[in-house]
Amino acid sequence: MSPVLKRPKEKFTLPSKYLLFLLTCICIGIMILSFKTPNINTPLNSVAGMVLIPFQNGIAQVGSWITDKSDQLLEIKDVLAENQRLKEEVDRLTIENTKYQQERYELNQLRQLLKLDEEYSEYEKIGARIISRDSNNWFSSFTINKGSKDGIKLNCNVMAGSGLVGRVTSVGPNYAKVTSIIEDNNNTSGLLLSTGDHLIVTGDLTTIQKGMISFSKLVDKNNKATVGDKIVTSNISEHYLPGILIGYISNIEIDSNNLTKSGTLTTAVDFEHLEDVLVIMELKQTVEQ
């Protein structure tokens, strides 16, 4: 008979989850016993101290680390929220400041127009806003948002700043085109207010870059014309009503004929920054021929 082979005994193994559960129960039991006998120096207390104290210290350190990280995360969250709030506040204040500056600028413009309206109170006027202009940097010609429906007619005089801008040269139902006195070779009959002598003001887009335009044919027999004298529209002007300020003499020279004088004048209007204008509804009376 052949010998009977014995099967090797299987080793007993405890699953890790049960082992962890068992160790946890043992630790809890030791903790309970140590709490019930806190003042008795027993081997059980010594064992509990050796096992539990490092375990408790580790747990305390981990808990402290987690608490610190949690506090840091909360602080970062608060800082980010505050930063976002401050950014929104800065944006709001920037918008308000821009709006305030725009309103302040428009208010100054309206104050100038009101003052101009009071200075020429004998004329009926209507306010208008510039809606387009020619391609150059100066308002030599531009379009306003008022037209024939508002009573504007061809050759209506236009003012802004402290004086004359130009006249209406084209009219539509709800718009009008204005040609200003600074347009190249645009002649305007002027009057030297201090002496009553006549002259011709000529538009020049080259000199206007310095804020000036030219004048010529001034007859100043008594040599009374000086820098700073006012030049206004003449009563013999073909299109302009009399007495509207054109500008101030900035330079004056005697012509080669020794009979007349010419020079430049500083305009009463800033032709680079026009936005709103006044249109005089009354037309210059002309003699029919």
Query: What class do helices, strands and sheet pairing give?
Result: alpha+beta
Described by the principal axes of the CA atoms, the overall outline is rod-shaped
Kindly give the count of domains: 2
DSSP summary: helix tally: 2
Q: How do the strands line up in the largest sheet?
A: 1-2-5-4-3-12
Question: Which superfamily, in CATH terms, is the homologous superfamily of the largest domain?
Answer: Rod shape-determining protein MreC, domain 1
Radius of gyration using CA atoms only:
47 Å
Walkthrough of the structure:
By secondary structure, the chain is an alpha+beta fold. 34% of the residues lie in helices and 26% in strands. It folds into 2 domains: 19-29 and 43-119; 125-280, Rod shape-determining protein MreC, domain 1 (Thrombin, subunit H, Beta Barrel). It has helices spanning 16-36, 43-119, and strands at 125-133, 141-144, 157-160, 163-171, 176-180, 187-192, 197-202, 212-218, 230-233, 245-254, 261-267, 276-280. A 6-stranded antiparallel beta barrel has the order 1-2-5-4-3-12. The chain starts with 15 loop residues before the first helix and ends in a 9-residue tail after the last strand. It contains 2 helices and 12 strands.
